[in-house]
Amino acid sequence: MEVHHGLRRRRRRVLADVTLDIAAGETLGLIGETGSGKSTFARAVLGLVHVSAGSISVDGEDVTGYNARQWRALRRRGVVQYVFQDPLRSLDPDLTVEDSLTEPLLLAGTDRRTAAGRARDLLTRVRLPHELLTRLPGELSGGQRQRVAVARALATEPRLLLLDEPVSALDSANRVHILEILKELRAAGVALVFISHDLGSVAGVADRVAVLHRGELVETGPVADVIRAPRHPYTRLLVGSAPTLHTPAASRSERAALRAQLAL
């Protein structure tokens, strides 16, 4: 996959030669610093940016050449869903939890009574009490909002779920709740892409990890292999800087040397 951005005369390539296959029931950790191309990758999969080379296939369907109408239809079917890092920005502040959960179902043609029952089931699925259905997002805690955002993404039974830093702003208890939900989704055959800047945060969740640096896929492989023997200088920098990984921490001089390599 390649993605370019900007006007015709000033176009710059923001993703280059990124090839990723994600199987049903697999969790892929997509790692990289700000500006590495993580969000651009997610937006390309959602059809929000143009792919200038390569192809995208979702649930066996080649969607690369889809026009705006076809992308809208695909999104309404909910095959792919995205959970934003900040649920307070992704949830409409004027809609109750019930309205937020039923909206994608109503758009897909579900009758209102069935959608209301489904909203209750979704809250149960993310371990939230039904009395929250009448609340507005601003009346919920951060952990509750994040779980509502996950529930909303699950309303259409997606086959691929993209999660942008889903636990970075949560306390340990809510982090455990979210990770348990993701584990259940994986067991149900949903493919998950866990987007993060921190390798340590996905090490215990992902099956494989893909490392993006300056718009290029510099390393990919099983999590344990990448942590044990990182090949690219940027990956070695990530591994050495992650305090939660059971690896010797890189010294300041070692990190400086790796950064010097990356600057070449």
TrEMBL record:
GO molecular function, one term: ATP hydrolysis activity
UniProt entry tagged with the keyword Nucleotide-binding: yes
Gene3D superfamilies reported for this sequence: P-loop containing nucleotide triphosphate hydrolases (3.40.50.300)
Assigned protein family: Belongs to the ABC transporter superfamily.
InterPro entries, per database record: AAA+_ATPase (IPR003593), ABC_transp_ATP-bind (IPR050319), ABC_transporter-like_ATP-bd (IPR003439), ABC_transporter-like_CS (IPR017871), Oligopep_ABC_C (IPR013563), P-loop_NTPase (IPR027417)
Organism ancestry: Bacteria, Bacillati, Actinomycetota, Actinomycetes, Kitasatosporales
UniProt-recorded name of the protein: Dipeptide/oligopeptide/nickel ABC transporter ATP-binding protein
Superkingdom of source: Bacteria
Presence of keyword rRNA processing: no
Pfam families attached to this UniProt entry: ABC_tran (PF00005), oligo_HPY (PF08352)
GO biological process, one term: transmembrane transport
